[in-house]
Amino acid sequence: MTGEQPGSLLQSSSMYTDAMKRAFRSISCPKNFSLQIIDNDHFLTVKAREKDFMSLETVEMKREAIEYMVRVKKALEDNGAIVLLVREGGKEL
């Protein structure tokens, strides 16, 4: 399962500990944006939807979303996770 903020879903739980869940939930998520946490047993994937990011109205909102992704990655790493940031969507080149 996956963890997503503001609503959460959860798949496998071998890497994603309770401390990591608390750290993730403690970070304020920008309005109209969310991340999905995917537990891959030995590492976590933090996935952003490109559609959500591109629909943010201002450069400031996009900057806040990027800063949020970095804070989430750091919080998870600080709690022992190996983290991969990815995006979903967008045009293939």
Describe the protein's architecture and organization:
With 93 residues, the chain is α+β, with helices and mostly antiparallel strands. It has one domain. Helices cover 35% and strands 23% of the residues. It is built from 3 helices and 4 strands, in the order βαββααβ. It has helices spanning 18-25, 50-54, 59-78; strands at 2-5, 35-39, 44-49, 83-88. A 4-stranded mixed β-sheet has the order 1-2-3-4. The protein is globular and about 35 Å long.
Which descriptors would you attach to this protein?
93 residues; alpha+beta; four-stranded mixed β-sheet; 3 helices; 35% helix; globular
Blueprint of the fold:
Blueprint: E1 2-5, H1 18-25, E2 35-39, E3 44-49, H2 50-54, H3 59-78, E4 83-88
Parallel strand pairs: 3-4
Antiparallel strand pairs: 1-2, 2-3
Number of helices: 3
Structural class of the secondary elements?
alpha+beta
Point out poorly predicted stretches.
none
| Sequence of strands across the biggest β-sheet | 1-2-3-4
What is the chain-wise order of helices and strands? EHEEHHE
Please provide a brief summary of the model.
This protein has 93 residues and is of the alpha+beta class. Helices cover 35% and strands 23% of the residues. Strands 1-2-3-4 form a 4-stranded mixed sheet.
